[in-house]
DNA sequence: CAGTGGTCTAGACCACGAT
DNA sequence: TCGTGGTCTAGACCACTGG
């Protein structure tokens, strides 16, 4: 068996005994234990990261991944409710809100001129204190006056409905795997280049007008998507 | 800017000019061009792989990824039809079919004793000659007599319906990101350890009895999942 | 401050692919 | 046979974390 596979196996066994979020031995400790080199140790760690069993925090170390949040994109479930049902403590943090000229894809989705202005809301969502998702929400400025004064750390859907009387009636998501971009990784205090799930959600009102365009980056080991059809 | 980022940028620009599936310069060529080392060159290549822009074939080299297949797990769409609509040439290859004692998870799903016997069908699906998905189908042997004699390279749904008069009426999928396991990677002539989408599909008849339990491994850069809800 | 991971070098040998 | 990627060594310096 290859050396990095042995190291992988050793760490996997370690994880079996550990609680969520526990720190693993440092790369140099592992290297000494296996009379190996950092390259090989890191090969093993990266594979486990891709499998979703462990995750990195920039320059802090490697940690055991907690259970995945099971999420159904069809049900218009509230993040807080969903997380609590599954035994997590959920949290949302507003990073910033600003008005901006939206990227071209977003403008096209709104069928508007590039000169029109959007709100851009950046939020981070956590489970048990661990950041698991970065969210970038675009919506038209003129449709949501004074949005920056509202409570943006809760459910956006509820806010749209209660404060602006706008109800979401349908939704379209696109799910791909990609690498966490550098700027997004920094905001999640994670490492760039790790795999992540990128979910683009477009939500529409009853008149089929686009209400918001959301780009979500999920730490890939933190989520499992469930879909049912009848 | 970091060296591996420069190399990434260079390759990204290269890709812009290339057709799908074109081979990239070898690692050693890139290394010389940037007066660098293989570690650094590979860092750049791995990140592009995670982003889905390029893929590896074991010991053959690195290639430019074609466009992604857009797939909607809700619509009970036929693979061939879907692929052709999007301009791909689809293909299915039967690797083998055997009767086997199913893994415990599968037995539990069928609510049967571990001693009961299942069919296990292994297939690889390709787009334009590139393997993109490995599929492992479990179904109960007594429900599908002589399955091994049937045409197993087409739609299983159609086969169930035409040959056994069994119709799928609902379906439940679970989607996660993980690493391609070694044995699966070999069957796809790809490299182990690359990210992949793992989709577990359970399909039920009108009486809500489980008909088949499918485990699919998708080359992550080859697929984009689309979900709509109303 | 010591310890961590992040980046990087300059090599090596091997199994396998294409020819 | 030669070139490819796959695995591996034994170092190095840096930025940042945590005490």
Report on the structure:
The structure is a homodimer of 230-residue chains. Chain A has 230 residues and is an alpha+beta fold. Chain A folds into two domains: 3-64, Arc Repressor Mutant, subunit A; 69-225, 3-Layer(aba) Sandwich (Chorismate lyase). The first copy, chain A, has seven helices and ten strands. A six-stranded antiparallel β-sheet of chain A has the order 4-5-6-9-8-7. In chain A, strands 1-2 form a two-stranded antiparallel sheet. In chain A, α1 packs across α3 and α2 crosses α3 (38-51). Chain A is elongated. The first copy, chain A, starts with a helix and ends with a strand. The mean pLDDT of chain A is 93. Chains A and B meet through α3, β7 and β10 of A and α3, β7 and β10 of B. β10 (223-229) of chain A pairs antiparallel with β7 of chain B. The first copy, chain A, binds a DNA duplex (19 and 19 nucleotides) through α3.
Enumerate how many helices of chain A there are, as a single number: 7
Helix proportion of chain A: 25-40%
CATH class of the largest domain in chain A: Alpha Beta
For the sheet with most strands of chain A, the description reads:
6 strands, antiparallel
Overall number of domains of chain A: 2
């Amino acid at each position: 068996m290859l050396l990095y596979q042995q190291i992988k196996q050793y760490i996997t066994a370690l994880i079996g005994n550990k609680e969520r979020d526990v720190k693993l031995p440092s790369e140099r400790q592992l290297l000494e234990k296996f009379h190996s080199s950092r390259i090989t140790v890191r090969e093993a760690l990266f594979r486990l990261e891709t499998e979703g069993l462990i995750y990195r925090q920039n320059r802090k170390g490697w940690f055991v991944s907690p259970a995945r949040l099971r999420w159904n994109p069809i049900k218009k479930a509230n993040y807080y409710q969903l997380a609590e049902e599954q035994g997590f403590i959920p949290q949302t943090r507003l990073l910033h809100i600003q008005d901006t000229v939206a990227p071209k894809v977003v403008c096209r989705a709104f069928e508007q001129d590039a000169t029109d202005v959007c709100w851009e809301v950046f939020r981070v969502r956590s489970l048990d204190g661990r950041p698991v998702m970065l969210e970038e929400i675009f919506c038209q400025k003129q449709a949501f006056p004074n949005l920056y004064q509202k409570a943006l750390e809760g459910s956006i859907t509820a806010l749209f409905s209660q404060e602006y009387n706008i109800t979401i009636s349908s939704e379209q998501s696109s799910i791909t795997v990609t690498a966490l971009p550098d700027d997004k990784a920094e905001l999640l205090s994670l490492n760039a280049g790790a795999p992540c799930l990128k979910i683009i959600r477009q939500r529409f009102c009853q008149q089929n007008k686009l209400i918001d365009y959301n780009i979500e980056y999920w730490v890939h080991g933190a989520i499992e998507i469930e879909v049912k059809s009848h």
